[in-house]
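Working notes for the structural subgroup meeting. M.R. asked for a predicted model of this chain before we commit to crystallization trials. I am recording the input and output together here so anyone reviewing the notebook later can reproduce the run.

Input as submitted:
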Amino acid sequence: MASSFFALFDDIASLLDDIASMTKVASGKTAGVLGDDLALNAEQVSGVRAERELPVVWAVAKGSLVNKAILVPAALIIAALEGWLEARGFAIPLILPLLMLGGAYLCFEGAEKLAHKFLHKAEAVEHHDMLAQVVADPSMDLLAFEQEKIKGAIRTDFVLSAEIIVISLGTVAEKAFATQLGVLTAISLVMTVGVYGLVGGIVKLDDLGLHLIRPSAGAFSRSLGRFVLAFAPKLMKALSVIGTAAMFLVGGGILAHGIGPLHHAIEALSAGALSWLWSSLLNGLTGILAGALLVGGLSALSFLRNKRHTPTV
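Returned structure, recorded in token form:
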């Protein structure tokens, strides 16, 4: 009886140790996506009233947990089905097409954002002024505005979470089911807490600066507060640029990885010194081209549809 108990305890300890070590490996492989996730979500949840920033971040964080609660079992089921089909002679990829669909969505989002910024400047300025008016006017109902922000951030998080889950699953593909489940669960929790904890801190930098420059504060505190207040908007602007670039880098990387000849071509062109830089640039270029094609194609379809339904007098 006692020996059975200790054997079970030893198995549990071994499983936990395996999960911990594999989680560390998976965290290293998904670190780049974590940076992209941070930049994208910090930019997505910006622009709401100061007192509503943390509630919005918390709402997106809860949505992210729901995303992962859907993605983890879905990834395990799809991976098991893919393995089952392969064992019976049907090598049908199931996860990769879904991941490429998400990559295409990220490229489309990035290209659409750039199109609105550079090709529809008047509309972009008008939209920005409208958002500023909504945030500044205390009589305005911000519920719809906040909900739109939250939904957009959760949609983006879903794609990035899917990539994190798939990359993590790849590191434990040969492990037992319990280890796979433990690693994916641990990664999901660590990534969610890490990303949205940092996002919450970033969006509250301006409040920290105001606290530091209070009249009762010392000279050093006030100087630090002024620096934080000057730095915070620059950081948010930088994160907006980084977030857009991340859409192309992540989305283009997913698409390139899923297209064999393109992936091998990028690997060949990226060989040698600074291979990571060339690889990132080529993945980003792939994302920009894919996004431009998607935006152009959808715009053309929209134009044709409107033209087709235009009533004739």
